[in-house]
Structure formats: structure tokens, C-alpha cells
Write a structure and sequence with these properties.
Structural class: mainly alpha
Radius of gyration: 23 Å
Shape: globular
Order of helices and strands: HHHHEEHHHHHHHHEHHHHHH
Oligomer: single chain
Number of strands: 3
Strand order of the largest sheet: 2-1-3
């Protein structure tokens, strides 16, 4: 019995040693060089570029950032439309999403504001390139957090190599160059799970500022920060809250009811703050609730685009349900559509030419293999896998006509928001050459994009 227990004890000591060991200086320098290059090079791009128009929801997100910079509001006015001429003077905006709650007398931008607010400082200095640099910084943050998580079970260099390959050799990298919210959602999921799956550092900052930081950033507050982190993604894609459940489980397992209460409190406070800011700007907690939304074409930068015709009083009397905003609440309360399309779409989900997870994110297949070989006895990682399945099932059945995203999507644009959770299925990376195989697959499948 003692002989059988010794390997377990040795593994436990090794795990603790990895947890306490700081990242080596060489690995930190390697990542610093990588991050500086990737964050700075979008700032050198010229506009307009390719593709030559703002696609999908880009006009709303970009104009929101400009409106926050120049007007500190989210109202869409003629001066906001005119700002498109600065960097996109010869292009049309074919899908500017707007919203109203008073028959288009007052018009706001109709997308969640969070990523535009985050990118606004860089946009103020660098324009649209600043938005891309913000996206790239969020992706680099995800890579670093992923490496710190994997370092618990693997050498530093191997952990960074695997994390960098996971994010960079996937369609996640392509969405850096969309003025969109996907990369923010990925960073949100990564931060939530990282704070739950890794312990707090033993060494804490010292001095006056160190004491100030420790007052709110410490081991005791870690569950609350994990809950708060997932809100940034869930505010844009509510189904991403499902990926926070494994983190909530870990908080409960560590401190029982007290830990779960911390996690829920962090999520609740963050949600209230995010919704309160939205109410301050637009009068509504979200761009998806209680408003009428519509996509319009911008063909003339000197005036407001053509808005949906205001409904007459006679029409409101004839159709009483039209007296309130259309497209306000009912779209949420739909039953899943499970029919003959589901099995076919499942195949497309994994290996489809335009949507396949294993083709557009080759490291995801490696993560699943490593999970089934080394991590299948971990209930929290089974929870991550179940949550990922729930996110995929939601998109496949609630919007079977558009489960992969729209607007010229690259890979599965909706599921890419949840992609980082796959990394947390991994513990030990063995054999050590496995990431090299992942890079080779990335060169074959992801290289063209």
C-alpha cells in the first residue's frame, strides 16, 4: 500500500512545486517580445484596407467608440455618420445596427457598448487601428493567462508554446481584425476560468501601492473576480454565462456556500454596473431588450440614413401590439428547433469546410485528446466540456438557420467566443512534441485565412 501511494505523493509535491515556481525570465521575455510585436503591428495598417467595406456589425461598434470619444454618448446623429469619411471615405456601411424606443425619434447605436468603451482610448489616438490593437492586446492577455494555467502541469516553455498555438493558430486570430466583440468575449471566458482553475500567487506586492492592491486583489476575493470576468462576455452573448458554472462549482468546492456566494456576488455587482452604465447612456440595460432594432444602409455620409418609417396612429389602433417597440422581448423566448438538420449541422460543426471546429482551431482537437487521456476524472473539467456542449447546442437549435454567425463569418463566429474553455480541459501535455503537430495542422488548415 505504501509503495502504491508514493507516486501519488510525489505527483502532489511536483504539482505544488509548479504552482509556487514563478515563470522563468526567458519565458517572460519571449512572451513580452511576442506581445509587443502583435499589439503594435495593427497600428501600422492603412485604411481603407481589405475587405473594402465595414462588414457585419462593424459600423455600429466603430461608430460607438467614436461617439464615446467625441460626444461621450451613444446617440446616432448626422455628425456620427460623417466621421466614417475620415478612414472609410469611399465605402458604404451596409449594416449599421440602430435602435429606438420612440418610433425613431431618438436613435441610438443598437449593439452592446462594452467593447467600444474599452477600445475608445486607443481609437481616440489611432482610429480604427486602435480598435484592432485593443483586440490584439486582449488576445495576448488570453495567451498569457492560458500559459499561466498550463504551467501548473507543464514546463514554462511548453505551456507558452501550447497556449500561443491554441489562440494564434485558430480563427480567433482572424477576429482580431474585425471591429467586433468576439475577442473581448474570449478574454472574458479565459479570465473567468483562469481565476477559478489556478490558485492565487503566494508572493504579493509590497509597499503602499501593494497594500492598496492587496485590499481588493487577493486569494479571498478571487472567486468574486472570476464571477465578474464572465459578465463581460455574457453581456454580449448571454449563453456564455454557462461557461461560468464550472468556476462557480470550484468556488463552492473550495469554501462551500461562502465561496459560491462570493462568485455570485462578483457576477451580480459586475452585471449591475455594466447595465447601469448602459441605462445612463440609452435608458435601457441592454441593446437587446425593450427596444426596436434595425439594420440600415449608409449610402450618403452627409445625412442620417433612411430609418424605418414611423408607425402612424391609425396603424397602432388597428394593431394594438404594435404600440410598443417591435423586436423587444419575444425573440428570446423561443423553443429549440430539433429536427433533421441537427445531425447534419453537428458534422459541419466539427469538420465543415466553413465552420469546422477541428479545421479552424486545430489545437481544439489536441485539447480534447489530452482531456480524455489525462483529465477525464476531474469533475470540474467534465463540467467545462458539458458547458461547451450546452453553448454549441444552444446555437445549433435556437438559431439553426444562422448558428455559425453571419456577415462573412470565418469559421464558427458564435462558438469562437467559447473557444478558450477548451484550453482548460488540458492538464499534462504529453508527448512534448504534440504542440509541434498542432503548428503543422495550423499551417495546413488555418494558413489560408
Amino acid at each position: 500500500l505504501a509503495t502504491r501511494r508514493r507516486p501519488c505523493l510525489r505527483l502532489a509535491r511536483d504539482a505544488n512545486a509548479d504552482r509556487l515556481r514563478p515563470v522563468s525570465r526567458m519565458v517572460r521575455l519571449t512572451f513580452a517580445g511576442l506581445a509587443l510585436f502583435f499589439v503594435l503591428f495593427p497600428l501600422t495598417l492603412q485604411k481603407p484596407g481589405l475587405p473594402q467595406d465595414l462588414k457585419s456589425d462593424e459600423p455600429a461598434y466603430y461608430l460607438m467608440a467614436l461617439s464615446l470619444v467625441h460626444d461621450f454618448d451613444l446617440r446616432c446623429e448626422t455628425k456620427d455618420i460623417q466621421r466614417l469619411t475620415n478612414e472609410f471615405p469611399y465605402n458604404n456601411a451596409n449594416n449599421l445596427i440602430l435602435m429606438t424606443d420612440d418610433d425613431w425619434q431618438t436613435v441610438w447605436f443598437g449593439k452592446p457598448y462594452l467593447v467600444s468603451l474599452l477600445a475608445a482610448p486607443a481609437v481616440a489616438i489611432f482610429g480604427a487601428d486602435g480598435f484592432l490593437a485593443t483586440n490584439m492586446a486582449l488576445l495576448m492577455l488570453s495567451i498569457w493567462l492560458g500559459a499561466l494555467y498550463l504551467k501548473r502541469f507543464n514546463p514554462d516553455g511548453l505551456a507558452l508554446l501550447f497556449s500561443a498555438g491554441f489562440f494564434l493558430l485558430s480563427n480567433a486570430f482572424a477576429y482580431v481584425f474585425w471591429i467586433h466583440t468576439e475577442v473581448l468575449c474570449m478574454a472574458s471566458v479565459t479570465a473567468c476560468l483562469y481565476l477559478a482553475f489556478t490558485p492565487a500567487a503566494i508572493a504579493m506586492p509590497t509597499g503602499r501601492w501593494g497594500r492598496f492592491v492587496r485590499s481588493f486583489w487577493n486569494a479571498a476575493s478571487r472567486p468574486a473576480w472570476s464571477g465578474a470576468a464572465i459578465i463581460a462576455g455574457a453581456y454580449n452573448k448571454p449563453i456564455l454565462a454557462l461557461l461560468g458554472l464550472p468556476a462557480l462549482y470550484l468556488a463552492y468546492r473550495a469554501e462551500r456556500t461562502r465561496g459560491a456566494a462570493k462568485w455570485i456576488a462578483g457576477a451580480a455587482v459586475a452585471g449591475i454596473v455594466v447595465c447601469a452604465i448602459s441605462i445612463g447612456f440609452t435608458g435601457h440595460p441592454s441593446a437587446y431588450l425593450g427596444v426596436e432594432r434595425s439594420g440600415v444602409r449608409v449610402l450618403d455620409f452627409t445625412r442620417m440614413p433612411d430609418l424605418p418609417i414611423a408607425r402612424s396612429e391609425a396603424y397602432k389602433e388597428a394593431v394594438p401590439e404594435a404600440s410598443g417597440p417591435r423586436n423587444s422581448w419575444s425573440w428570446i423566448f423561443r423553443l429549440p428547433e430539433v429536427d433533421r438538420r441537427l445531425p447534419e449541422n453537428l458534422g459541419y460543426f466539427f469538420v465543415g469546410r466553413h465552420t469546422g471546429l477541428l479545421l479552424y482551431a486545430p489545437f481544439s482537437g489536441l485539447c480534447l485528446l489530452l482531456f480524455f487521456f489525462y483529465g477525464r476524472r476531474s469533475p470540474e473539467r467534465w463540467g467545462v466540456l458539458a458547458a461547451l456542449a450546452g453553448v454549441a447546442f444552444f446555437f445549433l437549435t435556437l438559431i439553426p438557420f444562422n448558428w455559425h454567425g453571419g456577415g462573412g463569418f470565418i469559421g464558427n463566429r458564435y462558438f469562437v467566443n467559447a473557444l478558450p474553455a477548451l484550453l482548460f480541459l488540458v492538464t499534462r501535455i504529453a508527448p512534448a512534441w504534440l504542440p509541434v503537430a498542432g503548428f503543422a495542422l495550423g499551417g495546413i488548415f488555418v494558413g489560408p485565412i
